[in-house]
Specification:
Number of strands: 12
CATH architecture of the largest domain: 3-Layer(aba) Sandwich
CATH class of the largest domain: Alpha Beta
Largest sheet: 8 strands, mixed
Radius of gyration: 30 Å
Oligomer: single chain
Helix content: 25-40%
Structural class: alpha/beta
Order of helices and strands: HHHEEHEHEHEEHEHEHEEEHE
Shape: rod-shaped
CATH topology of the largest domain: D-Maltodextrin-Binding Protein, domain 2
Length: 313
């Protein structure tokens, strides 16, 4: 028995006529009659009583009609769910993200998912970029947002956002009232870095805020990126953070004289692009999020169109 047999049977039952059912189904009447007879043979029951004008359901046919309608409804729902899943409208997604996007881009994407894709169950994992890339490569995550540019084997990356870097300093630091922090001022202080190989991409951005020449500043390695604001709050060092970062109490964010930027990539495995990936790229580029982020004037979305440029690998 095929799905078409159920559809043909229901159409004949509702129209009470092979002729009208054939017209409704856009099939030839002789072929429709043959399909119904084949269905009756398979069931071992007569479903219709053939009349001079049209047909009428037999008792067996009436019972089968109720079940056929339920089956067709279930099939249509299953097909719709499958189509929605393929289009990123429904399903589950395991999404990792670097702490660098926690206060900005991640809020934007989670709001967009809640509003536009409410039937997608999202589980999120915050971790250092190196660990996220390994988890995506080993299929523990479907996708991740990390500091870019990413050029890792077996992974595809698309830029999903970009933010200016700001300096986080204590409110008691003279730099807290500076209109722009120059590289020499940073070099004269203790500079917060991660020091973790899994956060090497963050440290590379931080070092861009330093002078090209001259002695390097003392560095305070904090390990996980989620803690880099703590020394700035305590007045122990200068921390370099994305513009969307929410400063801790007792600290402020100041612009840098240099145009230093954090670039963010959405990454997934080469052999499996998550259906939700195009939506995330478009949502990130949309200017309206329903939430005001710290330093939002410094946030910039990618200038290239995600759908038109080749992915970096």
């Amino acid at each position: 028995m095929e799905i078409k047999h159920l559809r043909y049977f229901v159409a004949v039952a509702e129209e009470q006529s092979f002729t009208r059912a054939a017209e409704r189904l856009w099939v030839a009447q002789p072929g429709l009659s043959q399909q119904i007879r084949a269905l009756e043979r398979e069931l071992g029951a007569q479903l219709f009583e053939r009349l001079n004008r049209g047909v009428a359901l037999t008792d067996e046919g009436a019972v089968f009609l109720a079940k056929a309608r339920v089956a067709l409804t279930a099939i249509e729902e299953a097909l719709a769910t499958g189509r929605d899943a393929g289009a990123g409208q429904v399903g589950r997604v395991r999404l990792g993200f670097t702490p660098a996007v926690r206060d900005g881009l991640m809020i934007k994407l989670l709001l967009a998912l809640r509003e536009e894709r409410p039937r997608i169950a999202v589980s999120v994992v915050e971790a250092q970029c190196g660990g996220l890339l390994r988890d995506v490569r080993d299929a523990r995550l479907d996708a991740a947002i990390v500091l870019g540019p990413v050029t890792e084997p077996r992974l595809t990356a698309e830029q999903i956002g970009e933010e200016r870097a700001l300096a986080a300093v204590s409110v008691d630091d003279p730099l807290s009232s500076s209109p722009a922090v120059d590289p020499a001022a940073i070099a004269a202080r203790v500079l917060t870095v991660s020091g973790d190989p899994d956060a090497a991409a963050y440290d590379r951005v931080v070092l861009q805020a330093l002078p090209d020449d001259g002695p390097a500043p003392r560095r305070l390695a904090m390990g996980h990126l989620s803690t880099v604001l703590l020394p700035a709050q305590a007045g122990e060092s200068v921390s370099i953070v994305p513009a969307s970062t929410r400063p801790l109490a007792g600290s402020v964010l100041r612009p840098l004289e240099r145009d230093v930027r954090f670039s963010f990539d959405l990454v997934w495995r080469d052999d499996h692009m998550p259906p939700i990936a195009p939506f995330l790229l478009l949502a990130a580029a949309h200017p309206h999020t329903g939430v005001v982020l710290p330093g939002q004037a410094f946030i910039r979305t990618p200038t290239r169109s995600p759908g038109k440029s080749p992915a970096r690998r």
